[in-house]
Amino acid sequence: MKRVRTTSRLVALVVVTLVGAGACALDPQAGGSGGGGAAPVGAAEQVSGASAAPGPDQPPATTPAKPKATPTRMAPPTKPTPKPKPSTAAPSGCPQGEHQRAVEAYLAQLGGFGRVTVDGRQSAADCAAIKKFQKRYDIRPVQGRAGPTTYDVAKRLATTDTGRCEAGSGLTFCIDLTRQTTWVMRGGEVVVAPTVTRTGMSGYRTPAGTYKINFRNVKEWSDPYEVWLPYWQHFTQGMGFHETTTYLHDKSIGSHGCVNLLHADAVRYWELGKVGSRVVLVGRRPGT
Question: Which CDD domains match (predicted)?
């Protein structure tokens, strides 16, 4: 009897053991398919450590909560600060022209207009000198700006070669038709520095050559053109010196062959000239 009971207990123990092992291997909640064979009981826990007791310096393993994303407010885009445009006005308030340095150099070469600094930067002294130059040669407006007309006049005067005029021993009026300048010499010396003029336009070219003044009148009337000719000094073919009746620096026009002068120059030439005074013209006006 005892042997039968013992045998029955052994059989029951074996049955219980086999049923428990199969249940662990096929537990659908484990997520496995069973095709890989049954893993030893507790093997997964040892790998992950999820059920292992924490050590003395190890805090309980907890899954850290994901921080809530805080929406970042984007700052509105800022417009770039525009760079300030360079000022064209000098500290003196006098405007600076596109030919500043060249005009400074020409005025320094010509002299007589005040102190200028050849550095291409407008200053109060430069402005005063340029204004004085503009007033002398009737360049409008008189504002001290080294613009195209101021540059052109300064260049023509500074590059005039007075030695081109064969003056002789007496008084001679000289005209450079190419540069549209005129000056006066006596005994080989310049007595009136080069100044501006405007001669015959296209179709009315003033001819180069040597002539003599043969008629003068302080105020001559022009029959063909019906205009007064102040400080008239005739030297050839109806051509002579006289004060201009239009803006001298308008290059789109010109005379009908005469040598136009600014008022101050016409007066000075009248005071110096006389019948028999020599007139020498060299070169040729561009475009004629």
Answer: YkuD_like
